Amino acid sequence: MVLGHEAARIRAAVDLGRAEVAVADGWKEGQAASLREGVRTAGDADAVVVLLGDQPRLAPDAIDRVLAARGDALAVRARYDGVPGHPVVLAHPLFSDILRLRGDMGARDLLAHHRVAEVDMGPIDAPQVDVDTPEQLEEMRR
After folding, report:
1. What tens digit of pLDDT does each residue of 58-93 get?
2. Helix/strand/coil for 22
3. Is there a contact between 104 and 29 (Cβ–Cβ < 8 Å)?
């Protein structure tokens, strides 16, 4: 799990279970900093699964489904009504390219140059709803 802004506060307030926590000190740069830190922490892992912390309704089944679709693809991406989303699986051969990413972008542009397996997750629903404020979280809970 990669944390950035308010990492110490989150660690103190949230039970992260057995998660290994890495901190993206350059979080102000944007998504690429977190992705790079996650890949660095993964080291020689076969692959990483990328999820967004602001999508709390993503079901564990979604992770299982993208992992099951891996085959020999360098990446697997969930799609909701044809729209790319998360989770995304990124295989080790992509790690060096990921470490060069900069700015407030994930791996989307990088994946445009590689074979990506896609898993149809069905209609866009709660799993892809971003929750960025306390008010949005409260609304989602209702």
Report:
1. 888 899 999 999 998 999 999 988 888 899 999 999
2. strand
3. yes
